[in-house]
Write a structure and sequence with these properties.
The protein is mainly α and 159 residues long. Helices cover 94% and strands 0% of the residues. It has 3 helices and no strands. It has helices at 3-8, 12-81, 85-158. The longest helix is centred in the last third of the chain and has 74 residues, at 85-158. It starts with a helix and ends with a helix.
Length: 159
C-alpha cells in the first residue's frame, strides 16, 4: 500500500484520527516549550535570590567591620584624651560630632539599601512578567505560523 492509495482511501474517521494525532503532537511540543521556559525561569529567579542574599550578607559584614573599626578608634581616642582635661573636652566634642555624622550616614545608607532592596523584587517581577508576555506572544505567533504552514501543506496534499 503506497501513500497515494492511503490518501485516496481516507474517510472522515481516518481524517479525524490524523487530525487528533497532529493536535496531540502540537500540544506535546507546547508543553515541552512551556516547562522548559518554566524551569529556566525558576533557575534564574533562584540565582537572583542567592545573589541578593549574598549581597545582603556582604553588606551586613561590612557594617559589622565598620562598627569594630569605629570601636577601635574610639578606644584609642579615649586613651589619648585622658591625659589632659582640655583635650578630653575637645576630643569629646569631636567624637560626639563624628558619632552623629556616622549615625546619620549609616541611617542614610540603610534607607537607600532598604529602598533598593524593597524595589528589587518588584522590578524583577515586572521584568519576569514582561518577558513571560513576550514569550507567550512569540509562542502563539510561532504556533499560528506552524498551523498555517501545516494547513497549506495539507491543502497541497489534498489537491
Amino acid at each position: 500500500m503506497n501513500f497515494e492509495n492511503f490518501v485516496n482511501q481516507l474517510n472522515w474517521k481516518k481524517l479525524a484520527v490524523v487530525a487528533l494525532l497532529i493536535m496531540v503532537f502540537i500540544f506535546g511540543i507546547h508543553e515541552i516549550v512551556f516547562w522548559t521556559f518554566f524551569h529556566e525561569t525558576n533557575q534564574f529567579v533562584a540565582e537572583v535570590n542567592s545573589e541578593i542574599l549574598q549581597q545582603q550578607k556582604d553588606i551586613q559584614k561590612k557594617i559589622a567591620d565598620d562598627d569594630r573599626e569605629f570601636e577601635a578608634r574610639s578606644k584609642k581616642m579615649d586613651a589619648m584624651a585622658s591625659n589632659v582635661e582640655r583635650q578630653v573636652d575637645k576630643f569629646q566634642a569631636d567624637v560626639n560630632e563624628y558619632l552623629v555624622k556616622a549615625e546619620k550616614e549609616r541611617e542614610e545608607r540603610e534607607k537607600i539599601f532598604d529602598k533598593a532592596f524593597e524595589e528589587a523584587p518588584a522590578k524583577m517581577w515586572a521584568e519576569h512578567r514582561k518577558f513571560g508576555a513576550e514569550m507567550k506572544k512569540e509562542f502563539f505567533r510561532e504556533s499560528r505560523d506552524m498551523q498555517k504552514e501545516f494547513s497549506k501543506k495539507m491543502a497541497q496534499k489534498n489537491k
